[in-house]
Structure formats: structure tokens, C-alpha cells
Design goal:
Blueprint (H helix, E strand, L loop, with lengths): L3 E6 L4 H12 L3 E7 L11 H4 L9 E2 L2 H6 L3 E4 L3 H14 L2 E4 L6 H10 L4 E4 L5 H16 L4 E8 L9 H14 L3 H4 E2 L14 E7 L5 E9 L2 E9 L3 H14 L5 E3 L1 H4 L4
Parallel strand pairs: 1-2, 1-4, 2-3, 4-5, 5-6, 6-12, 7-9, 8-9
Antiparallel strand pairs: 7-10, 10-11
Helix pairs in contact: 1-9, 4-5, 6-7
Amino acid sequence: MNKIRVVVAGASGRMGRALVRAVSEADDLELTGALVRHGHPDLGADAGTLIGAKTMGVTLTDDPLPAIAETQALIDFTVAKASVELAALTAQARIVHVMGTTGFSADDEIKIRAASRHAVIVKSGNMSLGVTMLAALVKQAAKALPDFDVEIVEMHHRQKVDAPSGTALLLGRAAAEGRQVSLEEKSVRLRDGHTGARKDGTIGFASLRGGTVVGEHEVVLAGSHERLVLSHVAEDRTIFANGALVAARWGQGKKPGLYAMADVLGLS
């Protein structure tokens, strides 16, 4: 059996290390490249040292072009600027680009969509299979309960730099899609002082930060005298890595396009 060649971007980060380990443990995948940012202290090290394993023969590099030219899938949990630049390269190589990065601007989204004309891009604010299912349930519940207020509460570790989280926004979009409205027009992300009564049809967000929390998300649909609460708790980053590997496998042989994890699980 020919193994799928995989490159991990952001290999020295928390998610990068989890991905390096997951790829190295998969029978059908082969780690062929590990990317880090320019000037990173781990440059030149062997990828195996990142996870306390034996030497893999894969050297950490800040030059993505040769690595991408020789691979079949890039798994990318980095930052928006880097992901957009990598998408241009995966489009040239016409490979699978699994993108778990969050915090994209509207202009970034346009560039990613353009790249997806040539690359298979699987993009999600959360690669967890459980969160993907949660989003499907949220969409269905929001559609079935149009008069219920929707509030999304998320908590992450104290080092997380963006808020709301990409997962919270993913869940908000699922609720908005269920009601056929624009999340940008309906979202409420800040409440402070005398805000007045809650406006009908809005989708509220609350972000908590502290400790080492991997990720917790709760979607509350509050009606008259009753509440429906849908939630997900991430206990280890391996769930995101495992989901990304599922996406990398699924993307092989697919037509170029911009896909979501819902497509991977057949929930679209």
C-alpha cells in the first residue's frame, strides 16, 4: 500500500506536535515535511525530537516550496497570514490542503476561495468530528426552533489570542444557516453597561479564557420556560489531529474546491 505523503505546517506548536505524532503513528500516512516560521529556534531539528521519539529523517524547515512540491497533503494549523500564503502554494501543486487555522479577514477568505479553484481545501474552525456533528445539530435545532434565543459560550486556555474562537463562529454560522440569516448581521459579541433588552433573532457570543482548557463550547437555545443546551468538551488536542487526518485522506482524488468537515462526514 502506498502511503499518503503529508507535510505539517506549524510543526513546533502544540497542534503541530500532535499532528506530527498522529501522522507518524498512522499506517497509511508518511510524514515527508515539517514547516516552521522563519527564524524559529527549532529550525534544522529532526521532527522526531518534537515528540520525544526516534529520529524520523524529516528536518524542520522554513522553506515550504520544496516540501509542498513533494507531498500529497498539507495539514496547516498556523496563523491566517501563513495559511493564505500556503494556500497559494498548494494551489500551484494541486494537492490537498487541510486548514484548521482561524482568524481570517474577508480579504483572506477571498484569496482562499481563489486557491480552492486548483487545490482541494478542507477548511474548518474545528477539525473535531464531534464538533462537526454538533454544528449539524445546532443548524437543525435553530431551524426547528425559530423563536428560541441562541447564545454561544466558549472557553479556552489563557494563551489563545482570538475571540470568539473559530469553533464558536462555526457554531454561530450553523445557527444562522439554519435560520437563513447572516451571522455578520445578527451576531452580538459584546455586552457591557445598560444594553437594553435582547433583540429578537440575534446570536450572542461569550468568550472565557483561563488555565489550560483545551476547548469547551456550549450552544444554548432559550425559549419560553425551557432551554435546550448542546455542548462539546475537548479533552485532548489529538481529537483535532485525528479529524485533520480523516480530512487529508478524504481529500485524495476529490475535485478542487473549498470543503468543510461536514463534507468529509457526509453531513452537507
